[in-house]
# Entry
Amino acid sequence: MAYEVIKRVGGRAYRYRVESYRDPETRRVRGKWTYLGRVEGEGTLSPERQARPSSRSRLLNALEELLESRDLSALTTGIIANGAGLAYGTFYRYFKDVHHIVREAMLRHSATTDRLLDELFASVSTAVIERSKIANWVGEMIAEAQAHPGLIRAWHVASNQDAALVTERQARFDASVKSFAQYIGKLNAAGLTNVKSPAFNAYALVALCTAIVRECAVERVFVPAKSSGLIEVIVDLLGLPADEYAEIAQAVAS
# Structure
């Protein structure tokens, strides 16, 4: 297999052709690089050549695509490598096994959900604004789960079978509980709420959201009425007043 790549050296871009071959002595897949010339104007390059994904990204993308039509148990490292258009041995340059790549794919996905939480926790304003932030976050959380159902299903399956993934899932759960407990503490300090046990409410909130994300991945459909009910419960767990909540939830659901 051969493909072209762009490498930057000293602020300049150069094009190379890379051909994969198997070393007859070591049996390892290697790459033969052939210099093709300097890139004079990057604006003339096709989008594919400008932003060709790395082999690692191609493997992660292939995993997600395969999981949309297959169960995790039906996948092997060879199938994933083939789906990425890469040699079998390339998989092991980046991942130990199928469970390892599932973990890394979920961490990549989690970067988006973590950003959404960071935006939610950034500051505390009025009760109306905090309710609106919660409603928007719930909508984005559900949309993310529906956009990656195969990966999320695989994550739950794998994290019940692999010790490292069990540890990772628990660590993420605990971190989310801690962050929500701190957020509730901020709401209390601002005089917006009066929650007696922020940690208890935070645990219930994270457990609920975990179940909802899993349901979205399994069912692939989450009706607006459920979204409204979920927002109502979360607002209540945070201790925020429910006034005007219905209008906010309806606006987000629509």
